[in-house]
Amino acid sequence: MNLKKLFLIHCKTKKLEINNNQIATIETINKFYQNNFDYNFFTNLFSKKEKIPGFYLQGDVGVGKTMILNFFYENFNQTKYRLHFNEFMINFHDFIFQNKNNKKKNIIDVFVNKLKRKCKLVYLDEFQVTNIVDAMILGTLFKKMFDENIKVIFSSNIKINDLYKDGLQREQFIPFIKIMKKKCVEQTLTIKEDYRKSQNKKIDNYLYPLNEITSFKINKLFRRLTKNKNKQEKILSIKGRDFKIKNYYDGVVRFNFNDLCNRNIGAEDYIKIADICKHILIENLPNFDNNNSNQQQRFITLIDIIYEKKVNLIISSVSNLEKLTSANSLSEPFKRTLSRLYELTSS
Questions:
Q1: Residue 80 host element (H or E)
Q2: Cα separation of 28 and 14, whole Å?
Q3: Model confidence over 15-64: pLDDT tens digits?
Q4: Cα–Cα distance, 113 to 115 (Å, whole number)
Q5: Are 56 and 156 in contact (CB under 8 A)?
Q6: Is the predicted pLDDT of residue 88 greater than 80, yes or no?
Q7: What is residue 194's predicted lDDT score, i.e. its pLDDT?
Q8: φ and ψ at residue 153, rounded to 5 degrees
Q9: In the chain, what is the greatest distance between 2 CA atoms, to the nearest angstrom?
Q10: H or E segment at 333?
Q11: From CA 226, how far away is CA 250, in angstroms rounded?
């Protein structure tokens, strides 16, 4: 597969800017493909070069990581599986829960073997580690995936060495970092500008500050979206608990920020909500600081899922995007959120 040639044609067809750093990344991932998939019996028999089963693409927000890996994934013609990392881990924990009574077999082995039968390539977008539960399990899980020769490509804003930085009991996470360093080609994509911000799009659907004018505009947008739609109550069942949506209009829903981010809910809930929504309105987005970092972490997860699911978004906020503040510990991942908000709320 000549990925570089295909990518140049793709850029020309889509009228995209051709960037040398992105071309270099395409060339590196093409080598990853050739080393792992594009070989015959004789080259495999006499090659002493160890196959590196992982490709880890790291870079700042808006530089085109997902675009490049999506392009590679779409041109990969063998069995494959793509998920946002949050969704992948939810599927994993669901599998463990469903098989908790199976004492005879190692459940991680069962999960990985099932994955291996399904695909030769796994693509995990927006790889990050934010909680101790995932941190403690990833080493065992990914060691087994690599041992079973499952090829994995990752996109991430975070370098491998900085994963789960300052997290609880991080010393127990170090073996996973060593596995990733050994089993992955790590490539950093550097571009000076955030493409999501640089397209001169008009940010029509991010409204601020919180005043009567903003409320009027939000109400007007909501009336337009729900015209001729019937209001109903929607109840989502998530692992035995109910999440009620009182104002559901055939794919259009309106939330207060606290409804989504000031409650003990998370990625599973947001995925269920995004799956049934075409338009989501979120009102009263606050500034963030160290006192509401839990709410900010939920908001980061929520925006990741809305972006992944391609749901239209309208927000009313206390301040504009440029001045929205962050808790100290979340300032780096929040850059991705702000970048995505530019794209999600633009014309």
A1: strand 80-84
A2: 22
A3: 777 788 999 999 999 999 999 987 655 455 545 567 899 999 999 887 88
A4: 5
A5: yes
A6: yes
A7: 60
A8: -115, 140
A9: 73
A10: helix 331-344
A11: 8
